[in-house]
Amino acid sequence: MLDVLIIGTGQAGLAAAYFLKQIGIPFMLIDKAKALGDSWRNRYDSLQLFTPRNYSRLPGLDLPGDPKGLPTKVEVAAYLSEYALTFEFPIQLDTEVKSLTSIPRGFEVETSRGTIQSKNVIVATGPFHKPYVPAISQSISNDTTQLHSSAYRNPGQLTPGSVLVVGAGNSGAQIAVELSNDFDVYLSASNQLHFKPLYILGKSIFWYYDKLGFLQAGNHTKRGEWLRQQPEQIYGFQLKQRLKEGKIKLFPRAVSAESRTVFFADDQHVEADNIIWATGFRPDFSWIQINHLFNEHQEITQFKGISNIPGLYFIGLPWLNCRGSALLGWVQQDARRIAEYINNDLKSM
User: Fold this and answer.
1) Which of 84, 2, 71 lies closest to 37, judged by CA?
2) What's the mean pLDDT in 247-258?
3) What mean pLDDT do residues 192-220 have?
4) Residues 80 and 59 in one domain
5) Residue 349 above 80 pLDDT?
6) Does some domain include residue 324?
7) Strand 281-282 to strand 130-131: parallel, antiparallel, or no bridges (unpaired)?
8) Average pLDDT of 255-263?
9) Domain C-terminal end among 246, 277, 308
10) Helices in 44-200 by DSSP H: which ranges?
11) 186 and 92 in one domain?
12) For position 186, which CATH number holds?
């Protein structure tokens, strides 16, 4: 039986592995991916982080390149792979988890490559499980190309004509800006857009966030509660400029569709040759078959990543403990705390 099994080899899983190794606790990581970094590598080609390299690193190894520059998805994928190799983590890839159940003195994990038993399990599968596409997509003609943002790679996938991007978070904003070079682009946003600069007086806005403690503010603090109530921010002013130039036309929430026509909350409508659904994801932990873990809202019962089931931990989820819990440069704080908690627990056995 293993001491610790980490499910997931993204930034959260690797950060947890780093601190477990520093402490000296034996562990193993598994992931359904065929290569390290695939969770980043398989996203849209033009993806660029809005956190600079010095705020996009894991403990013990810098991300190569200009520390103040913004890394691409390819850089991050390569970095995660190099990170695991540098610290020689025991990793088993191409291993899909089918179920996680509790057994006496630990847990049993059924995978596509056999059964694994472990005293402790850290679930580090991230928040991006099932792409969410609104039901109105089913009313759209087959003549219109539809892609969720998770399946979008580049403009070459689309047919000539117009593109409607539904969803105006940072991914939707970046995709809309890219497509506006070659297509007539419409953008549907459910709420008012809020923009923030990437840099202020030569420093990343995340430098200010870090110094002010915004990213470390706990869920249950006054500052954390205030931050959770703030609207989503779009970082950088490229979208704002394209809207001003008329290269992207903004519409409110998409409410219905018929054939190639999409209708909006203000009764306007457009005909779309292509639709990109940048509408986010829904979590899926249905493979965890443990009684009393989920509350009446099917949410994980946990505090700062420590679940109500002894030996079961979560890491890398949005607002698990603070704003930085799901961010590449800040997930290490949760990882360190959970590794130390496991160490203390093992010592007490």
Assistant:
1) 84
2) 97
3) 93
4) yes
5) no
6) yes
7) antiparallel
8) 96
9) 277
10) 73-86, 170-179
11) no
12) 3.50.50.60
Residues 146/140, Cβ–Cβ less than 8 Å: yes
Which of the 8 DSSP states describes residue 59?
A: T
18-75 pLDDT tens trace: 999 999 999 999 999 999 999 999 999 999 999 999 999 999 999 999 999 999 999 9
Q: CB burial class (10 A; 0-12, 13-18, 19+) of residue 286?
A: exposed
End-to-end distance of the chain based on CA atoms, in angstroms?
Answer: 15
pLDDT reading at 323 higher than 90: no
Query: In 3-state terms, what secondary structure has residue 93?
Result: coil
| Sign (positive or negative) of CA dihedral 157, 159, 160, 164 | negative
What DSSP line would sit under 165-222, residue for residue? EE--SHHHHHHHHHHTTTSEEEEE-SS---EE-SEETTEEHHHHHHHHTTTT-BTTSH
Give the domain range for residue 248: 132-194+231-277
Nearest alpha carbon to residue 300 among 271, 327, 321? 321
Based on the fold, state whether residues 299 and 331 are members of the same structural domain. yes
The C-alpha atoms of residue 330 and residue 323 are separated, in whole angstroms, by 9
Q: Is the pLDDT reported for residue 219 higher than 90?
A: no
Answer for the pair 134, 255: CB distance below 8 angstroms, yes or no: no
Report the percent of the chain where pLDDT is more than 90. 89
Report the half-sphere exposure of 182 (CA within 13 A, side-chain side).
11
Two tokens, residue 306: 């420590």
- Tell me the two tokens of residue 196: 């923030």
Tokens of 89: 């983590």
Last residue of a domain, one of 277, 305, 338: 277
Is residue 279 within 8 A of residue 134, CB to CB? The reply is: yes
Taken in order 64, 69, 72, 73, is the CA torsion positive or negative? Answer: positive
